Amino acid sequence: MKEKTIKKHVAERPHVVFLIADDHRGEAIGAFGTEDVQTPVLDSLVSSGTACRNTHIFGALTGAVCAPSRACVHTGIPLFRATIGKDMTNREHSSVIRSDVRLMPQTMRDAGYHSHAVGKWHNDKASLARSFEGGDKLHFHGMSDHTQVPVYDYDPTGLYPKEQEYMEHTFSTELFTNAAVNFIEDYEEKQPFFLYVAYTAPHDPRTAPEPYASMYEKSDITLPPNFMREHPFDTGDMVVRDEKLAGWPRDEDEIRQHMADYYAMISHLDTQIGRVIEALKTKGIYDNTLIVYTADHGLAVGQHGLMGKQNLYEHSVRIPLIFHGPGVPQGKQVHALASNIDIFPTVAGLCEVDLPVETEGISLHPIFSGDSVGERGIVGSVYRDLQRMVTDGRWKLIRYYRSPITFTGTERIQLFDLQDDPWETQDLSAEPQYAEHIERLASELAAWMHASSDILQDKPVIPVPV
């Protein structure tokens, strides 16, 4: 595979700490001003780094959005070309990354970085084995109780047989942070490191330890403007596991408690991230470390009458993305459109590491400095054979299908003006004056689906609005 000559000497490159959470929606950070949640550590990273506020996940072909979304982050490639299991008729999990695709940690390792993994790896074991030369407390499941975490020690053979798995009872966020801190404290190599830390928080069960469990009173929680007791129509996955975490119709007090528990998990995670940062400072390498914080997807937690991430509303497809360190402007919140396939190219760009030729995402680094050349005009997202979305940053079209496999879902569209209605409460698709936006976005969606090798591309994009 032909690549450009590496420009910067390995020893001069920054270390990288890549932090990824599970279920952390894009707005649930105090510095962004729209949530009650307390996140002083992440707020500090925002104030002294750059936050990409309009980053969307590419999507998933199953209800377990975590694995395919992480595959997109790891590879910088659209879901349909990054994974095995892209045929929706066989109900594949889309967790296995193609063996001929190079991943972000693999690329960093090949460029001279010491790659080390901690925590959740919801993709195949072979992709981890070719990416990391070390690791600790490796979790190959989608979730677990936070005080009963099945993990592996790093296996240089890459096999990870079941009999080597063991149970840890330290709270997951602290368990993974302990492993990350130990790695930083013990690191003595001359080459820079790429430390990948994947948390299972704030994913349910939302059982934060004290004092965080008591930090938020449900009576103090403000319900979002798009809270609904019931979603107005069948999205196609109305009884998936996540949706069963609260009763139907949604009760205001119950949702407030879910939100309080969700915020408690995030605040606890924030404190643990602070421990990683302190370890970098104590080691004397904080100023020469690129810190990246993101999540695999968002979460509804009562918005639109939904609980999970199996939908294409902003609360579920928009994720936090924060960069901090060498080459990153301070105190910027960028609103240019981005996809999670752009994360890998941005990390590589900041470290002056050349990308594999098959990578399709774009580096956001030039956009940090105000260069609009190469900005995305639209981003899209997929969910199973049930939903497709496209947005140009202001106008957003969601296309719903009725699945020929499960016979669930609704043939219809929604149109939102995100500038005037960021909570997506007013569907404008039936208003004649907005027909031109529907037609334009429908064309953009069809082109995006075709370019992404979406297997639904041959289906009509515009149904009759309901």
UniProtKB/TrEMBL annotation:
The Sulfatase N-terminal domain, residue ranges: 14-351
UniProt KW Calcium keyword: yes
InterPro entries (UniProt xref): Alkaline_phosphatase_core_sf, Sulfatase, Sulfatase_CS, Sulfatase_N
Single GO MF descriptor: hydrolase activity
Calcium as UniProt keyword: yes
Named cofactor requirement(s): Ca(2+)
EC code: 3.1.6.-
Keyword annotations from UniProtKB, A to Z: Calcium, Hydrolase, Metal-binding, Signal
Enzyme class: hydrolase
PANTHER family: ARYLSULFATASE FAMILY MEMBER (PTHR42693), ARYLSULFATASE G (PTHR42693:SF42)
Stated family: Belongs to the sulfatase family.
Name of the protein this chain belongs to: N-acetylglucosamine-6-O-sulfatase
Organism listed in the record: Paenibacillus allorhizoplanae
